[in-house]
Amino acid sequence: MSKLVYQEPQDYFVQVSVCSLNSFLVLNPFAVNISETNRLKIDAVLNNSIGSKFILFPEYTYSDELQEIYQNYCDEHGCIIIGGSGLDAIGDNFYAYSPVFLPNQETIKVYKRHITNDETVYSEGRIIAYPNDIQREISISVDEDTSFTVSVYVCYDFLIENKKRTDVIFVPQYEQSPQQFINEEDRISKGMKNFVLGANNSNNNQRSLGFAILNNQLITALAARHWRPENYLDVQGNQMDFHHTILYDTQGEKLLKFRINIGRPYSLPYTYNLTDNQPILIPLPDIAI
Amino acid sequence: MNKLSDLIKFFEPVSDWQEVVRNNFERKSGTYSYVTVTDIEVKYNDQVFYYPTKINFEYGYIKALKEIVRREKISLNEKQIKITERKKIIPFGFYERGKKYSGEIFQIINDIVGTKINSNCLFSPDLLTTRDSPLYNIDSNQKWASYLLVLQRISKNDSTVTPEMLDILNDLLDDYGIHYGYDSSLRDFVLVIFPMPYIKVVENKIKRNESNESIFLVLEVNQLGLFYTSQLKLEIDGLIKNVKKEIIYQKVESVKFGKAKYQVIELTPDSKGEIGFAAFSIKINGILVEKFSGYYIRDIKLDIKVK
Question: Most buried among A65, A138, B36, B99, using CB within 10 Å?
Fold first, then answer.
């Protein structure tokens, strides 16, 4: 036996659903509106996500009416729902928060600690920043020796707060120009060797985003399967070094499903990748909502 | 003062040192990322005293290959002593073999020491801790519990040494982490140190509860990627005796690793009593990485008087 503590990583796949939906936010009166159409969308997402261990919704798609549906679904299917985000009324004002539903456990509320300027204007100053510390990390035990941790950052919090490494970081977001998120998510996933998965809605330009360390092989394969373009251009049209996006430029309301390899959350360069291991993710066919 | 040959006399002889290194220390583990090769020589009164070549594997980031020469001049009895330490730091990323950037750990050692190696090689039978002899005497600057491989080159010319010089040498080389006596055979030795740079015990004390005592340990985890990207099994194999030397705790406890730099552990004996002695070994994935044992000092009352 070797005297060094090294262990070959073991492949361990987890199915994830990321959905790209228009936000349900209405301005008059200021609230998240779960209309009949929106309810049907949520049902479609849940019905098509059976088998997924994590379901991620974008920002402003949650209201308390959905609590029972989400909690029952979690209990029944043993999965975790990161329910986008909703509003918690504090007098006349609101805290924004993301509810995280866990099977047979109390819901964790991940409050938003940094509010963007446009949110303040949309809400006429009524969305306020949550002042206290919050629990972001959730630890999941697979068996006695294996456990994983995931964390949730709501939108801008991901850009501003200090991040601790977890195996997957979920970011429900609402961002019209996602370049800052691309830069930060790319940087974090490379540095922490983990998955950063975002669900975005900007109503006219939906972009769901996911990052992990990819190699050339996977970039070509994902590009061939419309999950991402092979190369990116910046605003001036210059060729950028390709960033490690798993999914990008998702147009329309869609449910994206894939199996991520949490046990081996990064790809080795192509030339070192000829050992007998599984890729870091396997995409599944996506479903229009 | 101890001689090097006394310090390593309980080491186990190995017939094929390359096989031992190949089986135990793989480069792909990523634990070591560079190697430091140190040679020390002392000039005095037209004589040159050579100390063993020390090869130390280390973790961390070094941007490029470095060669450091440290010279020290000491005047003693109107004569000068010159100590020269030649240090070469080789990051594995820059290690070239056969025009390729490659090389396993045993190949790197082989390249450094050359092929003229005596067949009587020695390997430490157990993990050596930094506080205890022989690792303290051989390299007191070492921070981590280590394994040690001792190689011997086929002998070069011997030099004669004046006895009055020896004591001075021993004192001067404290700074360089050397705490053993000089003899002329030292020049032929190569000491290869394989540290286990994973966990350190930064606090170890008795915690008194209302009716019982427990041992309070704070472990500091090294900032290695593997702690955060892979599943680790951390275990503490402990033995605690009370002041009457009866065993009150003996078990292997598995610790849940919180993925934080500092990890607090409290070990409570099954039976009550004042704790006198404790011995622990810490294992990660079943590999021994640190151990310590000792008696706890109790009830020392300091009586300080200020006039």
Answer: A138
